[in-house]
Specification:
Order of helices and strands of chain B: HEHHEEHHEHEHEHEHHHHHHH
Number of domains of chain A: 1
Largest interface: A-B, 16 and 20 residues
Structural class of chain B: alpha+beta
Helix content of chain B: 40-55%
Strand order of the largest sheet of chain B: 6-5-4-7
Order of helices and strands of chain A: EHHEHHH
Number of strands of chain A: 2
Distance between the termini of chain B: 55 Å
Number of helices of chain A: 5
Number of strands of chain B: 7
Strand order of the largest sheet of chain A: 1-2
Largest sheet of chain B: 4 strands, mixed
Strand content of chain A: under 5%
Oligomer: heterodimer
CATH class of the largest domain in chain B: Alpha Beta
Structural class of chain A: mainly alpha
Radius of gyration of chain A: 14 Å
Shape of chain B: elongated
Distance between the termini of chain A: 24 Å
Largest sheet of chain A: 2 strands, antiparallel
CATH architecture of chain A: Up-down Bundle
Chain lengths: 135, 302
C-alpha cells in the first residue's frame, strides 16, 4: 500500500452500518434487475452492485483492520488486500470499481451479462464481509 | 463457547485475542493497532504476548525505525492450529449441515440467527436455529419432533451452549410475514436448504393468505386472489413456500367444491402444474376433481 493512501479509523458500529448499506444496495440491484425498464436498466443494476461492493469492502476492512479507506476506490481495493483470505474479494471489488465510471457517469449502456456478473460479485463481497463478523 | 472469541474455548489469556487479530490480516500491525482492535487490552499486555509469540516463531516481529510491527507467521507448523480456532463458526455451520442433511424427513431450510449469526455472541449466548419445516403427514410428525430434539442436544454437545430452535412452517412463515416479525429481517446465516429470506412472501400476499386461513378456520379459500398471487411469486424459494402452503391447505381446508376448484386455481397461479406437469401432479388434479364430484353428490366431506 502506497504511503499516501488515506484511511480513517472505523469501529464495529461503523462496520455494521456499512454492512447494512451493502445489503440494501445489493437488494436495490436485484430489485432494479426485476423492475426497472428502459435502456438504463442494466447500468442502474451495475451502479447499485458497485455501491454494495464498496460498502461490503468497508465493512470487512473495519472488522478485520479497524480502518477503512478514505481515498479513491483503488485505494479501497489495496486496503482490502490486507484482510486475510481476501484474494477473491479483491478481484471482485477491482472488477466492480473498473466498471463504476462507465455505469454511473458516461451514459454507456450495459449488457445483461455485465449486470448479472456485477450482482454475483457484489453478493460474494457481501458474503465475505458477513464472514468477517464471525471470525 | 464464545464464538466471538473462539480461543477462549481453550485459553482465557490475552494470547487468543492477539492471535485472532493477527489471523484476520496479512499486513504487519503495530502493538497499538493490535490493542485497539482487541478493544479491552493494554498496550503493555499486548507487548508481552507479542514478544512471547515472536519468541516461539508464531509471530514475526520486525523493527521499522523506532516501531515494531507484528504479523502472523503462516509458515509456522503450528499456524494451522490458529486457523482451526478462526474457523470455529464455519465448523459449527458444516457440522450442523452434515447432521440435518442426513434427516429422514428433510427440512426445507436450516439457518442460524441471533447473536452467533450477527457476530455479537458471548460465552453465555444461545445458538439460535431457524428450522423451516415442510408440511408433514401425520406419520411424519413424531419422527420430525425426534429429529429436532436430537439436533438441539447435538448442538449443545458440540459447543457447550444452549440451543434454541425456532420451528416455522409455511403457514407460520406467512403469518410472520403478515405481522412483519422482526426476526424475519434479522441477520441469518444459511446452513442448509433454501434461502428463507427469498421464501418470505410480501406482506400483502401474506395478509391475503392469513385472512383466508383465519376466516372460518379455512372454510373458504375464495379470498385468495390468484392473479395477484401469480404476479407476486418471483423466486423459486417463494414458490416452494406457496406450494407447501397449498399442500397444507389441501390437507386442512374442508373439501367443498369451491375449495377444490380454488386449490387448483392457486396451484395454476403458482405455475407448478403448468411448469412441471408431472404424472404425480396430474393425478393430484384428477383427485381434486374426483373429490369435488363426490362432495357435491353426497353433500359432505369425503
Amino acid at each position: 500500500m502506497a504511503r499516501e493512501d488515506k484511511t480513517r479509523a472505523a469501529d464495529r458500529a461503523q462496520a455494521d452500518i456499512r454492512l447494512s448499506d451493502a445489503r440494501a444496495y445489493l437488494q436495490q440491484a436485484e430489485i432494479s434487475l426485476q423492475f426497472v425498464d428502459g435502456p438504463r436498466r442494466y447500468a442502474t443494476v451495475v451502479s447499485s452492485a458497485v455501491l454494495a461492493g464498496i460498502a461490503a469492502c468497508d465493512a470487512a476492512c473495519a472488522l478485520a483492520l479497524g480502518i477503512v479507506s478514505a481515498g479513491a476506490h483503488d485505494q479501497a481495493v489495496r486496503l482490502l488486500t490486507r484482510v486475510s483470505d481476501s484474494t477473491k474479494a479483491v478481484s471482485d471489488l477491482s472488477k466492480l470499481v473498473s466498471i463504476k465510471t462507465g455505469a454511473q457517469y458516461t451514459g454507456k449502456s450495459m449488457a445483461e451479462r455485465q449486470a448479472m456478473d456485477a450482482i454475483s460479485r457484489a453478493q460474494r463481497l457481501v458474503a465475505f464481509a458477513e464472514s468477517q463478523l464471525r471470525r | 463457547m464464545d464464538f466471538s472469541q473462539p480461543f477462549r474455548a481453550l485459553t482465557p489469556t490475552l494470547d487468543g485475542p492477539v492471535l485472532r487479530v493477527l489471523a484476520r490480516t496479512t499486513h504487519p500491525m503495530t502493538r497499538q493497532q493490535v490493542a485497539d482492535l482487541i478493544g479491552e487490552a493494554s498496550e503493555a499486555g499486548v507487548r508481552k504476548v507479542l514478544r512471547r509469540l515472536a519468541a516461539q516463531g508464531v509471530v514475526i516481529e520486525q523493527r521499522i525505525g523506532t516501531h515494531y510491527t507484528y504479523v502472523g507467521n503462516r509458515e509456522h507448523i503450528m499456524w494451522p492450529a490458529v486457523e482451526v480456532f478462526m474457523s470455529a463458526a464455519d465448523r459449527l455451520d458444516s457440522t450442523i449441515r452434515k447432521h440435518v442433511e442426513a434427516w429422514e424427513v428433510p427440512a426445507l431450510s436450516v439457518e442460524l440467527f441471533g447473536s452467533v449469526a450477527a457476530g455479537t455472541s458471548t460465552g453465555d449466548s444461545d445458538i439460535d436455529l431457524m428450522v423451516y419445516r415442510p408440511s408433514l403427514t401425520e406419520d411424519q410428525v413424531e419422527l420430525w419432533d425426534r429429529q429436532v430434539a436430537l439436533l438441539r442436544m447435538a448442538v449443545e454437545r458440540w459447543t457447550g451452549n444452549a440451543c434454541e430452535i425456532l420451528e416455522i412452517d409455511p403457514r407460520t412463515l406467512v403469518e410472520m410475514a403478515a405481522e412483519e416479525e422482526p426476526v424475519l429481517k434479522a441477520a441469518r446465516v444459511p446452513i442448509s436448504g433454501l434461502n428463507i429470506a427469498a421464501a418470505v412472501p410480501s406482506t400483502q400476499i401474506a395478509k391475503m393468505f392469513q385472512e383466508a386461513m383465519a376466516s372460518n378456520n379455512g372454510r373458504s379459500l375464495s379470498g385468495i386472489d390468484t392473479k395477484s398471487l401469480a404476479a407476486a411469486v418471483t423466486s423459486p424459494e417463494l414458490r416452494r413456500t406457496m406450494e407447501e402452503l397449498h399442500k397444507a391447505l389441501a390437507m386442512s381446508a374442508p373439501a367443498t367444491k369451491s375449495n377444490q376448484k380454488r386449490l387448483i386455481e392457486i396451484a395454476r397461479a403458482l405455475g407448478s402444474f403448468q411448469a412441471e406437469p408431472s404424472r404425480k401432479k396430474a393425478a393430484e388434479i384428477a383427485r381434486f376433481a374426483k373429490l369435488s364430484a363426490v362432495d357435491s353428490s353426497r353433500g359432505r366431506r369425503p
